[in-house]
Design goal:
There is one protein chain. 21% of the residues lie in helices and 33% in strands. With 448 residues, the protein is α+β, with helices and mostly antiparallel strands. The protein has four domains: 138 residues, Immunoglobulin-like (Sandwich); 55 residues; 68 residues, no CATH class; 109 residues, Immunoglobulin-like (Sandwich).
């Protein structure tokens, strides 16, 4: 077992002197001994190195030319040891010194917590009986010249500043202290001006932010009720809770934007015992109702709304019969919930206003309001033509007809929304025209 006293060997990681240190009184060991140790004082440019978190690697080539690499255990477990101040006790394991003789190559490598090599200290070890020598820095000098130069410059500047401070008279020192105190007081006043809990800028700024947020919320809720609200669909309008009595609303479509059912609505209070029909009067989630407002619609848009749904019937009567149009719901077999659910037979029967266009004496185009639109084709049955969608039905009567001639044209009709250029729809190119070139700079339109 090695014997050691409280004397430390100084290892400076930046300054190495090629000198041989006799450490016989500091370290004694024999081949095969366990827990041999050496006490080190590790410095860097004469300043203590904080060894906490570091690892120590000992390596070299022993007299039998066997390479060694040992991670050594160093601790602050003896009196006067202090890792933070660079004092430690390094323990060699039992496999370090296996033979007597001279270690011509040996080193201590200090590694930080991130695995980076801080520095390497080279040595020559010599074991002769009871004497142990170490030549520190003899094998290699790893100090970087540029780094040493920078350290020296910093040290010189520090000494120069220290000399200048020492050369100041007591009066100058007092003036400096007074200026420094005044500076600290100014900083404190500025800090109080900003962070004072009652009147500081930060408190006032926070209050202004709260006021601004309150104003923004008020404006958001008000939403400038002096102008119409714009919605893509009727469903979106119904769920918008901020519509108030007297507001105007415009919907671009009914079920989807620009589906041909755009309209203008007047928001008002619901009348006593009023039941909105959900066509011309819409119940809103806010408790108000939205009623169609045709007074603000342009002439072409009004025409489109009143007669924008066209139904073509091929009747083969060789005549110009006058149509009569009815609308009703819940005909037998179409009731919501199945046959017999609710009322029995037709409900909400209406006589629908219409316009008629005769393309020839065997077909007719009947135009009715857009809100009666159905995605359906007319079919002939029992002397009349019908269009159906769910529980809704449109019936078109042409008075007395030749049944066999009418059946011959069954299935050839159609229904469609007109391509309006009014307020609510985008203009659409006509499908029944073609362009004819007149010359290089002009064209004319002709019917197909």
């Amino acid at each position: 077992m090695a014997v050691a006293n409280n004397q430390y060997i100084n290892f400076d990681l930046l300054r190495y002197q090629n000198e041989v240190l006799d450490i016989t009184n500091k370290f004694k060991g024999r081949v095969g001994d366990t827990q041999d140790y050496i006490k080190l004082f590790v410095t860097s440019n004469s300043y203590p190195v904080d060894l906490r978190g570091m690892k120590l690697l000992f390596g070299g080539v022993d007299p039998n030319q066997v390479a060694h690499r040992h991670y050594l255990d160093f601790r602050a477990d003896q009196k006067t040891d202090n890792l933070q101040h660079g004092h430690c006790t390094v323990y060699f394991d039992e496999n370090t010194f296996n033979c007597d003789g001279i270690w011509k190559q040996a080193y201590f490598k200090f590694i930080d917590a991130n695995g980076n090599t801080v520095s390497t200290v080279d040595m020559v070890l010599k074991v002769l009986d009871d004497t142990f020598y170490a030549a520190v820095g003899q094998t290699a000098n790893i100090a970087v010249a540029e780094f040493k130069k920078l350290v020296e410059q910093a040290t010189d500047k520090e000494k120069e500043a220290e000399q200048q401070m020492q050369s100041l008279s007591d009066n100058a020192k007092a003036k400096f202290q007074a200026a420094y105190d005044e500076y600290k007081q100014a900083i404190k006043e500025v800090y109080d001006e900003i962070f004072d809990e009652k009147k500081g800028l930060k408190v006032n700024y926070t209050r202004l932010q709260e006021i601004a947020q309150s104003i923004q919320e008020t404006l958001r809720q008000a939403q400038f009720h002096d102008r119409p609200f714009q919605f893509d669909t009727v469903a979106i309008m119904k769920n918008y809770l901020e519509l108030q009595d007297g507001d105007l609303a415009i919907t671009s479509g009914w079920d989807s934007k620009d589906d041909g059912h755009g309209n203008m609505w007047q928001v008002r209070a619901k009348k006593r015992d009023e039941t909105p029909d959900e066509i011309n009067v819409i119940a809103l989630q806010s408790g108000y109702v939205a009623e169609r407002n045709l007074s603000m619609i342009s002439a072409d848009s009004l025409e489109d709304i009143m007669y924008g749904y066209s139904i073509k019937i091929v009747h083969n009567q060789k005549d110009y019969p006058k149509p009569t149009v009815f609308y009703y719901e819940n005909a037998i077999g179409t009731e919501v919930g199945g046959l017999g659910a609710g009322s029995f037979g037709e409900t909400l029967t209406k006589l629908v206003p219409c316009e008629t266009e005769y393309t020839n004496n065997n077909s007719v185009v009947v135009r009715i309001p857009r809100n009666f639109y159905m995605n359906a084709k007319p079919y002939y049955k029992y002397g009349d033509w019908y269009l159906s969608s769910g529980n809704k039905t449109i019936k078109i009567s042409l008075s007395n007809v030749d049944d066999s001639a009418a059946k011959a044209g069954d299935g050839k009709g159609s229904s469609y929304l007109s391509h309006s250029t009014g307020y609510f729809n985008y203009p659409t190119a006509p499908s029944d025209l073609r362009a004819v070139y007149v010359n290089d700079t002009a064209e004319r339109l002709e019917r197909k």
